[in-house]
């Protein structure tokens, strides 16, 4: 299932150790990502066998925001939300808090609410990575997207692997011994494949970031001294609509553009009123529709 990637092999052993220990968190939750018949279900079944079915909860990402669901985590060792649907995560704050071991409010049905601290490892799997309203560094720092790229389609089914081999006591004891005695680690290893998926997810989850990378910077606007906000918001709106977002929110686009540019370039930018240089007109307005407006002082992203 690691497709001969030694970094992923190490990560899988680290995941096993994290999954069996409900008293410590390394501040990540995992998404097992890939199309069907690639080993995700088999690896999850192995973890369930190792931990014990009764010690597993099964919340999916969006269910962490529902009023009474956190009660199901009480007394569990690990949470495994299999085949998580492609649901928009409007407010993943409780999932983020649990991932980092912070206290959350548990609201059981018919009983008083109480505060609890969970440190169990959360694992989700599916063909989708859920998009969300949270686009902060804190959100991306907590996500660990683990690729499952093996392809077992066309191969003869071997149900004995999942049903017998992975339930064998000697196999489970060996895995437990190896996981506990692996090289100690404070943070999960970050394989290149995992980093690449996170970068892709950030762009998919944040159309403004994607636009900055593939439109603003590819056009060379990041090297211009002045880019009017009305120009960049129109470009962003068209880009988002082409991505299938019918009514993109472009409010505050100038400020957010600067935030991304500060991270992606060595330059420094600020919002202020300024006038575009005549020699930059063609780059910003190749069809010459806005020449009159460009000749005036506009609210703009200005490179220091």
Automatic annotation (TrEMBL):
Please indicate if the UniProt record lists Cell membrane as a keyword.
Answer: no
Q: Which UniProt keywords apply?
A: ATP-binding, Nucleotide-binding
Asked if Nucleotide-binding is a keyword of the record, the answer is yes
Tell me which Gene3D superfamilies the record gives: P-loop containing nucleotide triphosphate hydrolases
Specify the domain of life of the species encoding this protein: Bacteria
Q: Which InterPro entries match?
A: Helicase_put_C_phage/plasmid, Helicase_SF3_DNA-vir, NrS-1_pol-like_helicase, P-loop_NTPase
Task: List, for all copies, the residue spans of the domain called SF3 helicase.
Answer: 7-161
- Give GO terms: molecular function aspect only: ATP binding
What is the name attached to this protein's record?
A: DNA primase
What organism is recorded for this protein?
Streptococcus pseudopneumoniae
